[in-house]
Each structure stands twice: as structure tokens, then as C-alpha cells.
Amino acid sequence: FSSSEELVLVDRRSSGIAVLTLNRPKALNALSDSLMRALAEKLQQVDADAALKAAVVTGTGKAFAAGADIKEMNSRSSYSDVRHDNMLAHWSAVSSIRKPIVAAVGGFALGGGCELAMSCDIIIASQAAKFGQPEIKLGTIPGVGGTQRLIRAIGKSKAMELVLTGEMLSAEEAEKAGLVSRVVPVGTELDAAVAVAEKIAGFSTPVAQLAKECVNASQEMSLAEGLRFERHLFHATWGLEDRKEGFEAFVAKRSPEWKHR
Ligand code: HXC
Q: Transmembrane residues, as ranges (predicted)?
């Protein structure tokens, strides 16, 4: 990892996790193309690094991210331009990462910021977090999952209300609706997210990846297809050294020593 001129800061910890911090605080971490490319690149480096088991993505100050970069998007003037460039298509790189990603949201997660948080696997929010899809106020609609992942997270009526009114959900409302897994006091969201990532990092990496893949598959498949997919991956764990180790350790009443293989 290089450390100069960083739009995304990387803190690689000996506990087997990396903390990635979005770093455009003056623009409330508006997600420019270059920032999202840097984030994808760093997450791909985490995926490729055998010493790392999970990642945390967080923001700075009062924003996780206040959305895609409105000024940058405004420089595209026509449908033909944005279609040709396939604007924002590269954002899907985040959801191709195989290692678990925990989002620590301490402030605004709006538009593309909310969509980025939803592309992560677990969202931990501080009491000051705010979630919303305000694109309608700009005369556009969500473009990276705000009409798709949000409905799966909080149901149609609430998702529709957020998308059609542009209003925000407080952290407490987001927790009640099921968008976030936990709300913690202001300033403690990163520690809480790191603790969750470290807990995951303590288990077998291939098993955690299979579990993540299965849970995410449920968003794309019918129940019957999902159950079949799950059964196949469950059986596949019998091909892992760590499955054998986990079972043998239980039977021998000792702690497992994961080989991550
Ligand atoms: C570019 C942004 C930005 C954004 C904030 N800024 N959000 N720049 N893109 N999404 C910049 C502001 O222009 C300003 O820069 C600086 O950050 C501080 O913002 P303020 O507005 O002065 O802060 P504040 O008054 O505290 O208001 C915070 C806020 C507001 C409520 C979050 O900034 C806001 O409404 N932002 C836009 C939120 C939004 O619409 N997001 C969705 C984007 S569309 P200067 O230089 O003036 O100081 C989107 C498209 C999705 O995400 C399609 C697919 C991704």
C-alpha cells in the first residue's frame, strides 16, 4: 500500500484487518470516480493479501459519504455521454470483494454514500448517522442500488418513502428498520466496527467468504435456488482443512487453530 496523496487511507492492522478511511473531508467524502477507483483498488489489495481477513470502511468528521460527486457528474452533459462512459458502473467492484467488509458510519450516508454502505456486509452506525437517497431533489434517481438494496433491507414502503421524498432516516430509525446492525455512541462506531471485523478475522477466512457469498446470494435468488446454493457450499466446506479442524477441535475440547485453507 502506498501512502501519498490518499483519497482512501489504509491502516493495515496486525489483528488481520485493514481500516480504509474515505478521505475527502472538505467535500464530505463525495465519491468521485477517482475516490471510488482508489477504494476498489485498496479493497482488491485486501482481498489478495493472505494476512488480511476482513476490512472496515469508514468516513471522516460529519460524513461517511454525502453521495456521488455532484459537481463531477454535472460535467457530463448528455445521456449519450453517461451511457457511453457507463457512469458509475465501476462502483460494482465493491460488491465483488470476497472478504467481509464492515461499514462504520458516523455521519451522513446519502445517495451513493448510503449505496456504498449497503454494498458492505454489515453497517455499524453512530447515533449521529443519517441515511437517505436524496437524488430526487437533484432531479435524478439512485444509480448504485438505492432502489434495489434498500428495499431488500427495509421493505418497500419505507424504501419508497425515502426514494420519493429524499428525507433522511436517523440512526435509530435505520436500526429499527433493519438497515444497520447496531447503533453505538458518537465517536465509538469505528472501534465497534473494528471489533466486529476482528471477531470475523478470528475465524477461517475461506469459511467466512463462503458464508458471505451465501448470504449475499439470497438477495439475488429465489428461496429454492438459494437453499440449493447454500447446500452446495455447505457440502463444499468438507473440502476445507478448517472444517475438519473446527469439528476435531470441538470433539477434543480444545480451541481450533485455523489454517485458513
Ligand atoms: C459534491 C459535495 C457533495 C456531493 C457535499 N458536497 N456533498 N460535493 N458532491 N455529493 C460539498 C459541498 O458542495 C460543500 O463544498 C462541502 O461538501 C460541504 O457541504 P455543505 O453543503 O456546505 O455542508 P452542510 O451544509 O453541512 O450540508 C451537508 C449535506 C449537504 C446535507 C450533506 O452537503 C448535501 O445535501 N449534500 C448533497 C447530498 C446529496 O444530494 N447526495 C446525493 C448525491 S447524488 P463547498 O466547496 O461548497 O464548500 C448521488 C447520485 C447517486 O449520490 C447516483 C448513483 C450514485
A: none
How, if at all, do strands 122-126 and 17-22 pair? unpaired
Ligand 1, atom 55: nearest CA belongs to which residue?
112
**Pocket of ligand 1 contains residue 132 by CB under 6 Å:** no
Q: Is 69 in the pocket of ligand 1 (CB under 6 A)?
A: yes
| Residue 144 beta carbon below 6 angstroms from any ligand 1 atom | yes
- Is 106 one of the catalytic residues? no
Q: Grid coordinates representing 68?
A: 456521488
Burial tier of 31 (Cβ tally within 10 Å: 0-12, 13-18, 19+): buried
Q: Which atom of ligand 1 is nearest to the CA of 141?
A: 53
Task: Give residue 1's pLDDT.
Answer: 44
Confidence of residue 4 (pLDDT cuts 50, 70, 90): very low
| E-state strands within 34-107 | 54-58, 63-65, 101-105
Question: Average pLDDT of 82-100?
Answer: 94
pLDDT tens digit sequence for 160-200: 999 999 999 999 999 999 999 999 999 999 999 999 999 99
Distance CA 26, CA 179 (A): 27
Instruction: List CB contacts of 197: < 8 A, sequence separation 6 or more.
Output: 17, 54, 55, 56, 100, 102
Is 206 touching ligand 1 by the criterion CB < 6 Å? Answer: no
The 10s digit of each residue's pLDDT in 135-169 is 999 999 999 999 999 999 999 999 999 999 999 99
Q: What is the pLDDT of residues 20-70, one digit of tens each?
A: 999 999 999 999 999 999 999 999 999 999 999 999 999 999 999 999 999
